[in-house]
Amino acid sequence: MAKPLLYGAHYSVYVRIARMALEEKGVDYELVPLDIFAAEGIPPWYLEHHPFARIPAFEHDGFRLFETGAIARYIDEAFAGPALQPSDTRCRARMNQIIGMLDAYAYRAMVWNVAVERLEKAAPDETLIARGISQAETVLRTLVSLSTPGPWLLGNQLTLADLHAASIIGYFLKVAEGRKLLVRFPEIRDWYGRVAVRPSFARTEKAA
Q1: At 97, which helix (H) or strand (E)?
Q2: Angstrom distance (rounded) from CA 75 to CA 66
Q3: SS3 of residue 72 by DSSP
Q4: C-alpha–C-alpha distance, residues 177 and 200, integer Å
Q5: Counting C-beta atoms within 10 Å of the first and last residue's C-beta, which end of the chain has fewer, N or C?
Q6: Phi then psi dihedrals of residue 33, to 5 deg
Q7: Please, which residues have CB within 8 angstroms of residue 69's CB and are 6 or more apart in sequence?
Q8: Which of the following CATH numbers is that of domain 5-78: 3.90.25.10, 3.40.30.10, 3.40.1190.20, 3.40.50.11540?
Q9: What are the average pLDDT values for consecutive 10-residue runs of the chain, which has 208 residues?
Q10: Sign of the alpha-carbon torsion through 138, 143, 146, 148
Q11: Is 121 helix (H, G, I), strand (E, B) or coil?
């Protein structure tokens, strides 16, 4: 069986989510470098993999996918290894709710409006950063309310929700504002401390 191919850049939050899923399942894969911000633009061949020219895209034995949620769920179901989705219907629904919440409300606020704005802009928009921090506070508070007692967000089982949250929050913590806010949420701070020492997190910090 051919080695799965994941197209994308190591700096991408969503590429990292897919990579963490592959690492947690123990899958030998190849990260095919694809920088959507490259000066020369997106290579035309990539549009066959992702018609909207985003990352990641995925290929396994001729089967192609784009969208991180679909990729991560396929990885969990197609490969041997520990299950990353709960078998219980309500718990699985909660996992999907958390992932959906992070996509809709956390990614833009935490990654782009705070971290990228602070790290990449010569003259950061402080109003945008302040709005991002306010939204991030709501996200973290909601994450606490949706979590189940235990080491992971949904109790004793590490799930795709943990991988999703770890990648987004990990980027948020690149800046002082993110680190300062996380201190106010000890449950999430302690959870992050556990997920951040997993091999899947360490191995996806940079390019494979």
Answers
A1: helix 89-101
A2: 12
A3: helix
A4: 25
A5: N
A6: -60, 130
A7: 99, 103
A8: 3.40.30.10
A9: 92 97 98 92 95 97 97 98 98 98 98 97 97 98 98 98 98 98 98 98 83
A10: negative
A11: coil
